[in-house]
Amino acid sequence: MSFSLTFLNYSWLWPVLLGGLILGSVFFWKEWRTSGQHRLTIKIILSFIALISLALIILKPAVLGDGKENVIFILTKHFKQQDLDSLKKSYRRSTLIDYRNTQDLSKVKQASQVFLLGSGLPSFELWRLEETPVTYLPGKELSGIVKLNYKTQNLSGKNLEVDVEYANPKENHRVVLEDASGNVLDSIILSPLPKQSFKLSSPLNVAGKFVYSITEKDSTGKLLNRHPLPLRIETAEPLAILILNYYSIFEVKYLKRFLADFGYEVSVKNRITSGRFKFDFYNQQAKNLSRLNSSVLEYLDLVILDAETLQLLTTSEQNQIQNSVRNEGLGVLILGESRNSGTLGDKFKSAIRRDRATEVILDPWPEIELQKKAFNLERKLGLEDIHASGSKLISAYKRLGMGRVGMTALTNTWQLKLRGSDTIYQQIWSELIEKISKRSQKTTTWLPQQELAILDEPFKFKLKTKTELPAVKTGNMQSISLRQDMIQPKLWSGRTYPKNRGWQELRLEQDTTAIFPFYVYESTDWQAIQEHNNRTLNTRVFSKNFKKSITYKSLIAINPLWFFCSFLLSMGGLWIEPKL
Question: What pTM does this model have?
Answer without folding.
Answer: 0.68
